[in-house]
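Page 37, continued from 36.
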């Protein structure tokens, strides 16, 4: 999210004094540590505003479910960085087959396969190739 929109979100949080709770999950191996699943921008804004704590909804889930939620929620609410999306789907694909991923995620099987193919390429190259495909 561009800084201009983050500033607007910050003003809204300051004006309203509240915000929709971000969704997090606890790390099984790290007690008292949490992974952000949805609400990354709200968390960033709260940090910028000096908050060291936030009201969050804790959604307990395994790694596969967390990656599915990250892939789905963040795709719905924002624009993807193609190389990061490719890496995220590659991690999820270690736990869930591509055909199952296609039933859960916004992409169809063909798009998932394209992203998985790109995930093995260096980060910058993957981003450039996927951006070029998007423009074509």
């Amino acid at each position: 999210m561009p800084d201009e929109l983050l500033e607007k979100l910050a003003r809204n949080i300051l004006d309203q004094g509240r915000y929709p709770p971000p969704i997090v999950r606890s790390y099984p191996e790290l007690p008292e540590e949490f992974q952000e699943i949805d609400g990354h921008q709200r968390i960033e804004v709260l940090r910028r505003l000096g908050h060291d704590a936030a009201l969050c909804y804790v959604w307990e889930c395994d790694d596969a479910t967390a990656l599915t939620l990250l892939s789905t929620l963040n795709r719905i609410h924002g624009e993807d960085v193609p190389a990061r999306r490719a890496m995220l789907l590659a991690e999820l694909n270690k736990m869930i087959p591509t055909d199952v991923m296609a039933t859960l995620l916004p992409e169809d099987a063909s798009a998932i396969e394209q992203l998985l193919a790109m995930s093995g390429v260096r980060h910058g190259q993957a981003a450039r190739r996927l951006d070029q495909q998007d423009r074509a």
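The longest strand covers residues 30-38. Flag for discussion at group meeting. Residues 63-77 form the longest helix (15 residues).
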